[in-house]
Amino acid sequence: MSSSVASSQPTDQTDDAADHDKGALAEEADQTDISMLSITDGQNERGIPRVKFVEDISSFAESFTPPASAELLIGAFSDLFSKFKAYETNLSQKRLNYQQKIPEIEKSLLLVNHLKK
């Protein structure tokens, strides 16, 4: 029994450390003025954001008040990446739907051309 108690203590300490890190990151996110507008550069005609190219990460992080940490920047770009994956899924589904409609459209076009004659 004592071995299970000993093995659970490091896990509890690890969980406490992870909770503390999450809390510190959440607090930093509240204090740092970072938004999608600060990492994007407008959007294209479909409403998909254009990502700013960042040459110097250090100066980019320092441009926020207070300066953004690497974790906060990674989180912001991860959120943006998730949005891009959602756009990709949506566009792939639309493409598949349109490809499935092609045979029916071709049949309709043949019928219209036949009726014109």
From TrEMBL:
<feature type="region of interest" description="Disordered">
    <location>
        <begin position="1"/>
        <end position="41"/>
    </location>
</feature>
<dbReference type="GO" id="GO:0016272">
    <property type="term" value="C:prefoldin complex"/>
</dbReference>
<dbReference type="GO" id="GO:0007017">
    <property type="term" value="P:microtubule-based process"/>
</dbReference>
<dbReference type="GO" id="GO:0007021">
    <property type="term" value="P:tubulin complex assembly"/>
</dbReference>
<dbReference type="InterPro" id="IPR016655">
    <property type="entry name" value="PFD3"/>
</dbReference>
<protein>
    <submittedName>
        <fullName>Uncharacterized protein</fullName>
    </submittedName>
</protein>
<dbReference type="GO" id="GO:0005737">
    <property type="term" value="C:cytoplasm"/>
</dbReference>
<feature type="compositionally biased region" description="Polar residues">
    <location>
        <begin position="32"/>
        <end position="41"/>
    </location>
</feature>
<dbReference type="GO" id="GO:0015631">
    <property type="term" value="F:tubulin binding"/>
</dbReference>
<comment type="similarity">
    <text>Belongs to the prefoldin subunit alpha family.</text>
</comment>
<feature type="compositionally biased region" description="Polar residues">
    <location>
        <begin position="1"/>
        <end position="12"/>
    </location>
</feature>
<keyword id="KW-0143">Chaperone</keyword>
<dbReference type="GO" id="GO:0006457">
    <property type="term" value="P:protein folding"/>
</dbReference>
